[in-house]
Design a protein that fits this description.
Blueprint (H helix, E strand, L loop, with lengths): L1 H8 L16 H11 L2 H4 L5 H5 L9 H10 L8 E4 L2 E4 L3 H9 L3
Antiparallel strand pairs: 1-2
Length: 104
């Protein structure tokens, strides 16, 4: 996983959370969506429920997504790196490196 590799290279300790085992609350999901810049930034377009709802191409409003994702955290794209108020979703190497640089 790119996030683990880059944090190890930077000698930065990473606090991990498997949100399939420890689900994100609606409040946490709402904050994540807000920090990431909207639903489109965090939605997992390959998720079956997301596809079935037609949200891959036309994401729902924030509150609809938060309520749905609270019941199925697999709707959230992974990995998610949160550094302060910066959120990097997916394996965006440049974004991950920039976020990590802000703490080293």
């Amino acid at each position: 996983m790119l996030v683990r590799e880059l944090t190890a290279q930077a000698k930065i300790e990473l606090e991990e959370r498997n949100f399939q085992r420890e689900a994100l609350s609606e409040a946490e999901l709402g904050e994540l969506v807000d920090l990431a810049g909207g639903v489109a930034a965090v939605i997992s377009p390959r998720n079956a429920a997301v596809k079935a709802a037609g949200w891959s191409k036309d994401p729902p409003d924030r509150d609809t997504f938060v309520a749905a994702a609270a019941g199925d955290n697999k709707m959230i794209r992974r990995p998610i790196l949160v550094v302060g108020s910066t959120v990097v979703v997916g394996n965006d190497e440049a974004g991950i490196r920039a976020a990590l640089a802000s703490i080293s």
